[in-house]
Amino acid sequence: LQDRIPPFSDAEALQVIEAELGVPWGAVFSSLSASPVAAASLGQVYKGTLASNGAQVAVKVQRPGVVEAIGRDTFILRNLAGIARRQLKLNTDLPALVDEWAASLFKELDYRRCARGTAARRPGGLQRRWQTRRVVLACMSQLL
Question: pTM for the full model?
């Protein structure tokens, strides 16, 4: 994971949003910021307005290819951990530690888990169908 990663293209973000929601973004949002308001290694956030009720929402979009990249990196780390364990004759099961870390990271990559965590505070316009594995909406007032 990186902490100073540039945002991915807005065109890619819109493709992810539309693919995940199953409709053109204009069917859900009356407006969507032209560029992300925040970017990180796993994804980025856009500011949107729901077409249904005008609610301001944060639209968290997962970076394309991030699951595959983390899977590849985890495979490499797990193999290196096994080599280190054997070469250093450690009793600690380093591959199992990598597995535990990876399991928690892959859970974080499923944005539906985030959505379930805020379900009790979900405003009426944030329907469950707009909460997917790679895109999640959150009410802006919850974030301020």
Answer: 0.79
